[in-house]
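Hi L.,

You mentioned the student needs an example of a multi-chain input paired with its predicted structure. This one should do, with 724 residues in total across all chains.
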Amino acid sequence: MAYVAKDKDYDATGAPLPGEKIHKIRITLTSSNVRNLEKFCADLVNRANDKQLRVKGPVRLPTKVLKITTRKTPCGEGSKTWDRYELKVHKRLIDLNSSSEIVKQITSISLEPGVEVEVTIAA
Amino acid sequence: MPEKTKSKSLFRQPGAKHFQLVHRSQRDPLIHDPEASQHVLKAFVRGNEGKGKTRDELEALIAPSDLQATRPNVGEASLYGVYYDDTEYDYMQHLRPVGIQEEGVDSIWIDAPSTSSNSKSKSKKFSEDMILPPSVLPSKTELPLSSIHAAQSAIPPSLQGLQPDMDPHLRQVLEALEDEAFVDDDPEATADDFFGELVADGERDSDEEVEFEFQEWGVGSDEEHGLDEDADEDAEGQESADWEDRFRKFKAEQKQKGGVVDDGSVVDGYSEGGDTLSGLPKLAVAGGKRRRTGTTDGSGYSLSSSAVYRNAGLTTLDEQFDRLMAKEYGEVLDDDEYDDGDSVSHSSRAPDESDESDESEETPDLLSRPDLQASMSDFLDNYEIIGGRKLRQVMPGMTGADKLETLRRGMASAADKERILAEAERIEREDMERKVNQNEMVGYDEDEDKKDRWDCETILSTYSNLENHPKLIRVRDGAVRPPRGPKIVVDRKTGFPSVVEEDQKEVEDSEDSDDTTKRECANLFVQGGMLILPVKAVRETIKRPKGESKEDKKARKAAVKAERQVRRVEKKAMKSTFEDEKRSFVKVLNGRRGVEGVKKL
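Structure written out for the whole complex:
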């Protein structure tokens, strides 16, 4: 059975196509707004799948909960009531194997508000 | 080195490059380029990577004297995994170079078979690092802040400020742009690519000659103060390139005229700047010396808004003032000044004509509905307002009885109405027949109507006069009369008991009545809403007489006991009655007020 390359960056023998240097790219998405984050994630993954890239789909890291517990009172008087504030930080990772072209397209995606995007290109 | 620790993720190794996706900087020249992307990848250094120091930095920290090591290969051993202090002892002597055959030593190098999968992936590592396309990265050069400020300001910096040496053509063009007279609202003219034509030839250099002559107003020229810049007359068109020469000439002329030197260059009453307002006269200062240095020249007058250049707000005020004056004194407005739609249309007429009012009593037809009159009259006739707010249809019928009649008729449904009416008619007919049969007078019975209709109470009340007020009729047989003695009466409203002294009269009255009515009993009964309880007339305390015998004592004790027992019974009866009354009263109260709570009396 002939081996058919999964993505166009490799030819039939499995060696990378010349001229198309593929690199491992990790996109880290951080946000405190889950809805926007998931939407953006889905968008990215869909685009990557459209272009037939090898995608390692959104890895959901544990949510970090930043808590601050303070007394409600500005002075010390009164029954000891406490305020518990928290900020939830959600983080998602998407790994791609792609060429530099794809990176260009990442910049053209409309960003959701509140989502921070980091791109890491492996050594 | 001890066992290899878990290898880091590919993306966390020192060679990886990190970027943040950010908006393009405002100082980036491509910010307004529609083809360039809105976001760029900005490189940043992650976490601990920025904390390390290079060798040069470390060397800079150490004093130069310490850098001078005795041996040249200090620290070389650490490259090969030997981390001990090299300064005194040379560890390199124990390390052999790989692959080099030394004399006297037989050694060959054999690679250990690698079992980890990492080695395979590492073989794919490319020597060349990934180069991102430059469109994705922020621009190398940024616009300077001054250019950004210039772009944001209303007037470009090249035109800002006092520029006495500005190209006179440019100056005239700028003035023309500000001038309203040049505004051409001709639709044909604006359809052309006017500015396209203007800028088609490109920017003119400052040295270039121009075809038309530059004419400057008022500087020693005799021509009219028209808007005709392309004057055919060559005239004394002072084309001195140097503004200073012109200014000197101007000053000389001013001195000739001996006029007041004003701030604006006012010549022949016409200022160069285009506003024809003259300055306020200056006050003479004694000795010609300005005593107060901080103030502006001359005038002791306060700044009135009439002296200020007319901007948009002041122009509006001026127009309003003109309109006001026109209204008051009936002057014709200028053609230029337009009316806004809100103001009342005023025509130009003399004040004495204003008595002829064209204000009619009725509103013009456009403002009212055609059926307004009809609906108004309908309302006035048929509807009334209750309590100032509620609208209600007036019930037909003048008197109360008539209104009731209409109500009754209205309430009866159609079918019922017919039945009832049929029934009523039938009864009437029968009555008539009966009367006719019995030869009674058919029709209206006068006597019956004239006779007054009396009931027993009314009759009784007719017997009352000043001396006599007949009482209620009492039932004769089987009536139980209350026993004699002071009556305790419980007031219906307050619930307090009160002793009612029996009058002699009442006693007489009671004596006059039947024997059967006089019956002594200790029963409770209610009469006319009043509770009457039998009570002993006077309660005497049972005293203990001195020297009483045993039997007397027994008798006395028994009497006391009996008395107490009776009293107990009375008390109980009284209490229970009270409670019953209270309960019923509360019930009634709650019924009236809803279950909100007992109203405290």
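You could point out the following to them. Residues 13-95+130-153 of chain B form one domain. Chain B touches chain A through 27 residues (CB under 8 Å).

Best wishes,
N.
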